[in-house]
Amino acid sequence: MAEEKLIGKVTHYFPKVSAAIVELEDSLKVGDKIKLKHKEDEFEQEVTSMQIDHKAIDMANKGDMVGIKVERKVKEGWEVYKIQEG
Question: Any alpha helices (H) in the chain, and if so which ranges?
């Protein structure tokens, strides 16, 4: 059974590059599975690329503001969950 843990919130979305800025409350790395959720709307994806200040990174920590490539349009306030297969 997969477990979901709230790890951050979307603070901004850039439609031209399909990237969401996420303020992290926990660590996140490239390759992690995440779920983005807002009310009844949600989708899952793998983290394929992350950036801080336009520099590609593999891992981010609590308190970091990261840019994540997203597969669908999101808005400010969407919650980001890390999915842990258990």
Answer: none
The values of phi and psi at residue 40, to 5°, are -90, -10
When divided into structural domains, the chain yields a total of 1
pTM as predicted: 0.94
Listed in sequence order, the residues at least 6 apart from 35 whose beta carbon sits closer than 8 Å to its beta carbon are 4, 42, 43, 44, 80, 81, 83
44: its two tokens: 């899952």
Name the residue range of residue 74's domain.
2-85
pLDDT in tens, 39-71: 999 999 999 999 999 999 999 999 999 999 999
What is the distance between the alpha carbons of residues 6 and 17, in angstroms, rounded to a whole number? 24
> What is the CATH number for 20?
2.40.30.10
Half-sphere exposure of 54 (CA within 13 A, CB side): 0
> Alpha carbon 34 to chain centroid distance?
6
